[in-house]
């Protein structure tokens, strides 16, 4: 029987490090498949709403970060750090287009509902498109119409997903409830080995290799 590696990823759409971590994970998976083609990977994404108290209409992006970090200069330095890390990972992030820090509850509800619909390729496309909507296009991930349009572009039927969207800013409570304290991105390999942060692909590949080796040592 071919080995199976389950990877759980905990993330929020507004976190640039989650998009960077996604790219690093993709690189690590390419390397894993090149060396261990027999391994079947089960990749599961878990939404974590980092700002559950965010108003339904969101807040002005620039002002949110000025208050959070203390000064315009601190924001500039943090954004430069993010842009540098993104460029190194091959990630396109355009922070200048983001007008609002959104409430991501409904974006997470949309993805969670879509998890039981469509194909794996459609679900991956939806995840990627939601990230792109925010970090590439500056779209409002708290807007119901925008979310349904994104889903439709990925091949989903909006009528099937619309009931999952509340539009009231109520917090998203998914299966990852309580994980926000661990920070995101947060990777768990084979339900036992955790890696926190947007680590390089080599670190993630090492964790995969270790998890597979541990599973191989277990009695059949």
From TrEMBL:
CDD domains recorded: DsbA_FrnE
DSBA-like thioredoxin domain span: 7-207
GO molecular function: isomerase activity; oxidoreductase activity
Pfam families for this protein: DSBA (PF01323)
Keywords for this protein: Isomerase
Matching InterPro entries: DSBA-like_thioredoxin_dom, Thioredoxin-like_sf
SUPFAM superfamilies: Thioredoxin-like
Entry protein name: Predicted dithiol-disulfide isomerase, DsbA family
Source species: Pseudomonas borbori
């Amino acid at each position: 029987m071919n080995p199976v590696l389950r990877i759980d990823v905990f993330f929020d759409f507004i976190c640039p490090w989650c998009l960077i971590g996604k790219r690093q994970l993709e690189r690590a998976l390419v390397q894993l498949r090149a060396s261990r083609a027999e391994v079947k990977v089960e990749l599961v994404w878990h939404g974590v709403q980092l700002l559950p108290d965010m108003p339904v209409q969101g807040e002005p992006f620039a002002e949110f970060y000025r208050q959070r970090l203390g000064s315009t200069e601190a924001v500039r330095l943090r954004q430069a750090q993010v842009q540098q890390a993104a460029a190194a990972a091959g990630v396109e992030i355009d922070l200048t287009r983001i007008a609002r820090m959104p409430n991501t509850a409904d974006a997470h509800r949309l993805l969670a509902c879509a998890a039981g619909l469509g194909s794996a390729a459609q679900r991956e496309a939806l995840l990627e498109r939601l990230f792109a909507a925010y970090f590439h296009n500056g779209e409002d991930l708290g807007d119901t119409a925008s979310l349904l349009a994104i889903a439709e572009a990925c091949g989903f039927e909006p009528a099937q997903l619309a009931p999952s969207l509340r539009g009231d800013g109520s917090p998203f409570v998914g299966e990852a409830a309580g994980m926000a304290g661990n920070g995101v991105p947060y990777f768990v390999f084979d339900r036992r080995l955790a890696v926190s942060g947007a680590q390089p692909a080599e670190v993630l590949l090492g964790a995969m290799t270790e998890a597979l080796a541990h599973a191989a040592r277990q009695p059949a």
